[in-house]
Amino acid sequence: MTPMTEAVTPSTSTTLDSLAPLLRAWLPRQRWFAGKGRPVTGFTPVAVTPLLPPGGRLGLYHILLRVHQPPGRQPGHCYQLLIGVREALPPRLAPALIGHVDSGPLAGHTVYDALHDPRPAEVLLEALRSRARVGGLVFERDPRREIRPNLVARLLAAEQSNSSVVYGDTFILKVLRRVVPGINPDLELPLALAREGCPRVPAPTAWLRTELDGEPYVLAVLQPFVSGAADGWELALRGLAKGEDFAPEARALGRATAEVHTALARALPTVTLGPAQLGPLVQGMTERLAAAVQAVPALLPYEEGLRSAYTALGELVAGGRTWTAQRVHGDLHLGQCLRAPSGDWSLIDFEGEPARPPAERRLPQPPVRDVAGMLRSFDYAARSASPPAPRWAHDCRAAFCSGYAEVTGHDPRTDPVMLRAYETDKAVYEVVYEARHRPDWLPVPLSAVRRLAASDPN
Ligand SMILES: Nc1ncnc2c1ncn2[C@@H]1O[C@H](COP(=O)(O)OP(=O)(O)O)[C@@H](O)[C@H]1O
Ligand SMILES: O=P(O)(O)O[C@H]1O[C@H](CO)[C@@H](O[C@H]2O[C@H](CO)[C@@H](O)[C@H](O)[C@H]2O)[C@H](O)[C@H]1O
């Protein structure tokens, strides 16, 4: 694989060879590393771009690295790394340590995850500000949006699928970790919403992209930081702990989701789904259930009940029912909703479910899919509370759907078969997600699975 310009030179390749043993141990420990549980057997450098020349007090490499983990999928996932190089690491950067290099051009140096370090993170912002091109890296900025120089960087502490750096409470840069070719919905949809003037999504200010083998890759997106915001998950848990009514917020979230859906339907094509599209949609849900039962045998007793949700949808399809599909968020939950101190809600993270193939994430889908994601999230919050609060989830569910209907004129509860199918599909996804990433949380989606299998969303 060759980058747009030749970034992998013999010297950068040797640099990477000397880092390989350190990366092999470090990568699998990162939350965003998608290949957990299988050993890393090798790396192929895809592009190595020095952003700060090594040799000074501080070096910075931008690296795209293909990670091999046989017998899994070939040729392996591609990851984006920003590697800092220093003679010694100050104690404040200890959590970022990757290791000490003992051979090759960097021998005697310490390498670390540079996003923890303000100075290299500021190099990225400056490159976006000045719309730099370095090797194959293209730093682009919406010319109508300014970036003030000298904003101080700090890495966001949250454990997440990617890494985000906040600059002076003004911007947040999401640095994608596992990068995939093609148009990235996390840039595409917010740009489309900004064109529509939709205020519910922070408008992208700048982004980093590259091209490999003629395919575009989005590597990072900069957007305004919603300062002082709390996310919906924190607020819901806080409200539950204090016994507060969350229904007004759930209604506001229903309205915000509906505003985003309405703007997306204006900005991008919508399609009518007939039997030719709905058959495969139902088939996909059925297949995901079968795969999930294989992966998590605790699902087995509920398989038949869960499948009945898809059979019921299949019957409506066979009877000639059609639905309108449009671009949607794809992984909407309370943690993707931010409430500003003004009380306004924003939706973030339009990447879709990380486990789905990229092309599938960009397909138009029934908007009820996002509604189902939010309803599942109210249930998650209610079941994580002590004691569990099913009535709270029930009230949020009603308020969210009413808020949604106020904007679109369509109450998702009037389409119960499609809604149950999507809630079931989401709960099945969550069972697999939790089994892989957070086994302690598995009882939460499993309790929903029990209810959904018995045809009761609450
Ligand atoms: N525009 C923003 N303003 C304030 N905080 C944000 C913004 N965008 C993201 N965040 C914070 O960053 C976290 C991670 O962002 P997200 O896009 O969900 O990344 P990931 O894909 O890694 O989960 C969010 O949970 C939120 O706390
Ligand atoms: O935020 P991500 O895009 O990384 O989404 C993944 O992780 C989420 C958890 O962080 C997971 O969401 C599930 O847990 C949430 C509570 O932590 C809950 O609000 C959601 O409803 C539930 O789905 C999400 O599914 C996964 O894709």
Q: What do you see in this structure?
A:
The structure is a single chain. This protein is α+β, with helices and mostly antiparallel strands and 458 residues long. It has two domains: 4-224, no CATH class; 230-453, Aminoglycoside phosphotransferase (APH), C-terminal lobe (Aminoglycoside 3'-phosphotransferase, Chain: A, domain 2). It has helices at residues 10-26, 118-129, 185-195, 232-241, 247-267, 275-295, 303-318, 358-361, 368-384, 390-408, 416-437, 443-453; strands spanning 42-52, 58-68, 78-86, 97-100, 110-113, 133-134, 137-141, 153-155, 163-167, 171-175, 178-179, 206-212, 215-224, 230-231, 271-273, 323-325, 337-339, 345-347. The chain has a seven-stranded antiparallel beta sheet, covered by helices on one side. A hairpin with a 2-residue loop joins strand 6 (133-134) and strand 7 (137-141). Residues 156, 158, 160-162, 164, 172, 174, 202, 223, 225-226, 229, 231, 335-336, 338, 348-349, 351 line the site of adenosine-5'-diphosphate (ADP).
Write the layout of secondary structure elements.
Blueprint: H1 10-26, E1 42-52, E2 58-68, E3 78-86, E4 97-100, E5 110-113, H2 118-129, E6 133-134, E7 137-141, E8 153-155, E9 163-167, E10 171-175, E11 178-179, H3 185-195, E12 206-212, E13 215-224, E14 230-231, H4 232-241, H5 247-267, E15 271-273, H6 275-295, H7 303-318, E16 323-325, E17 337-339, E18 345-347, H8 358-361, H9 368-384, H10 390-408, H11 416-437, H12 443-453
Antiparallel strand pairs: 1-2, 2-3, 3-5, 3-11, 4-5, 6-7, 7-12, 8-9, 9-10, 10-13, 12-13, 14-17, 15-16, 17-18
The structure holds adenosine-5'-diphosphate and the ligand O=P(O)(O)O[C@H]1O[C@H](CO)[C@@H](O[C@H]2O[C@H](CO)[C@@H](O)[C@H](O)[C@H]2O)[C@H](O)[C@H]1O.
The site of the ligand O=P(O)(O)O[C@H]1O[C@H](CO)[C@@H](O[C@H]2O[C@H](CO)[C@@H](O)[C@H](O)[C@H]2O)[C@H](O)[C@H]1O has 14 residues, from helix 9 and helix 11.
